[in-house]
């Protein structure tokens, strides 16, 4: 069974997906981490993702050899564990940028479908219910106010011993929202049959419970009678 969780950066997708996967005994596919890994790999290869004109041919050649694996909560690219270097503000910006590249989206959608083939997965990202798994039996879309999301990010960074400026992060979140919503390919949007949840004033446990209830209902509906 495939369960998709899409939504805005900082809306709680990753934490909710992790908790729901553990509770259901499903595997977890963090697609945002895959885009971060691509951003990191391009940077390491000397490719400027923010250049005025991207080198699409070189990027396509590099992508051709990419194979992802996501054991546990780690992100492996061609067998190399990149988990420790991906979850920074810089990699978040890089992920949003490379997600606008058609060649990157095509490659990662194919990898995501390969990874979850015939498995039970919670698939978390921006386009899982709309573009990658449109036939998933349970879809969710999470949102929260930009101000709440900025507060959450500040708290997370400070907890990890990293510097954090609320105003800068708020501006960055709003910019990334616009970039995700307006990209020409697979823009961030709620699937028509997705359950939408505003997490602004809900606890993690409350959000997970709401998703759990829907998934259990969908599973019982899909089970053969008798």
Automatic annotation (TrEMBL):
GO terms for cellular component: cytosol. CDD domains: CMPK. Keywords: ATP-binding, Cytoplasm, Kinase, Nucleotide-binding, Transferase. One of its GO terms (biological process) is pyrimidine nucleotide metabolic process. Gene3D superfamilies: P-loop containing nucleotide triphosphate hydrolases (3.40.50.300). It holds the Pfam family Cytidylate_kin. Residues 3-216 form the Cytidylate kinase domain. GO terms for molecular function: ATP binding; CMP kinase activity; dCMP kinase activity. It comes from Limnoglobus roseus. HAMAP family: Cytidyl_kinase_type1. The keyword Cytoplasm applies. This is Cytidylate kinase. Its EC number is 2.7.4.25. Belongs to the cytidylate kinase family. Type 1 subfamily. The gene is cmk.
């Amino acid at each position: 069974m495939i369960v998709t969780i899409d939504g805005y950066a900082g809306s709680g997708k990753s934490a909710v997906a992790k908790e729901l996967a553990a509770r259901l005994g499903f595997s977890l596919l963090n697609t945002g981490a895959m885009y971060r890994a691509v951003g990191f790999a391009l940077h390491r290869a000397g490719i400027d993702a923010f250049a005025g004109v991207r080198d699409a041919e070189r990027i396509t050649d590099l992508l051709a050899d990419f194979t992802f694996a996501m054991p546990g909560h780690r992100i492996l690219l061609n067998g190399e564990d990149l988990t420790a270097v991906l979850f920074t503000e810089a990699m978040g910006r890089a992920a949003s940028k490379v997600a606008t590249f058609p060649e990157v989206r095509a490659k990662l959608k194919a990898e995501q479908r390969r990874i979850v083939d015939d498995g039970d997965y919670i698939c978390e990202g921006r386009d899982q219910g709309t573009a990658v798994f449109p036939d998933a039996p349970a879809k969710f879309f999470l949102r929260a106010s930009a101000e709440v999301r900025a507060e959450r990010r500040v708290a997370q960074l400070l907890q990890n011993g990293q510097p954090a400026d609320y105003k800068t992060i708020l501006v960055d979140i709003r910019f990334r929202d616009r970039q995700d919503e307006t990209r020409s390919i697979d823009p961030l949007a709620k699937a028509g049959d997705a359950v939408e949840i505003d997490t602004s004033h809900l606890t993690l446990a409350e959000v997970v419970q709401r998703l759990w209830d829907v998934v259990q209902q969908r599973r019982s509906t899909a089970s053969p009678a008798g």
